[in-house]
Amino acid sequence: MLDWFQVRQVTTLTLFSVLTVVGSAVSGEVAVVDGTGQITALTVEGETLDVQVSYRIPLKGWGTLPGPWNAKGVRVTRDGERIALTGRVEVEPGEFYAVEQTIHDRDDAVTVELTFTAEADVETEGVFLWIDVPMNRFAGGACELRRGDRIANVSEFPREKPAQRHFLRGNVDGIMMSSPKQDTGLDITFDRAIPATVQDTREWKGTEYSAFCCLAPSLERGESTSLTVTIKPSVRADTSPANLALDVTRVRYRLDGFGGNYCFGIESP
């Protein structure tokens, strides 16, 4: 993954947005993955969606939510379009869950395979897949929870902060999310039905809607749980011509150079 293209500083955003699109188009990769295995964005049709996909293992009471950022000894290997990551998540000091994760881009979708094994008896709320989507893109759109070929539950993404942060839930094997103009969407499918809850994060001054999906309740030492999830993003790309004007009479400042830093994902050719 050419993650060094993800330059977010405002002063360099215009230049590096062009590089991001070019890099995505050339590599054909859908998922932008950081060094811990967390998906930080999805790319499709030259557009970047600020969608985050990760896992969390909240301790009892939800006061602490260990995730990929707590992983130790992460090892990354790459085989063609498949990235494999292994590591151990420290859920409590000195207490770990082993994590195996593969991320596979295929056509216009990404498949994530997750396996967790408890190496200690730690009381948790369970093991969760966590998907965050931006409010500024999905507010007023629709969220559907699916079971097989039927809609199990449906709700609008609330434009205003709702009275109850959890506005949708069900035991499902798929989630459909769409923007109000139907120009952005996510088609999420699981390999089995699991409990899913969709919430508004403004209670904590958040700017995302979060879908958190429970793979398993609290595991005992030696127990494992797995899930395969496929995410297909869709975007109505802006294909209008771009015009650039250069004023050579106006001197701004001296440019000493520019470049990039390969931080992770260096297995990619």
Description:
- With 269 residues, this protein is mainly beta.
- A hairpin with a 2-residue loop joins β6 and β7.
- The N terminus is likely disordered.
- It has two helices and 15 strands.
How does the SSE layout of this entry go?
Elements: H1 13-27, E1 31-33, E2 39-44, E3 47-49, E4 52-56, E5 71-79, E6 82-92, E7 95-106, E8 109-118, E9 127-134, H2 135-138, E10 142-147, E11 150-156, E12 166-178, E13 184-200, E14 208-216, E15 224-235
Antiparallel strand pairs: 1-2, 2-3, 4-9, 5-6, 6-7, 7-8, 8-15, 9-14, 10-11, 10-12, 12-13, 13-14, 13-15
Q: Would you summarize the structure shown here?
A:
The chain is mainly beta.
What characteristics describe this protein?
49% strand; 3-stranded antiparallel sheet; single chain
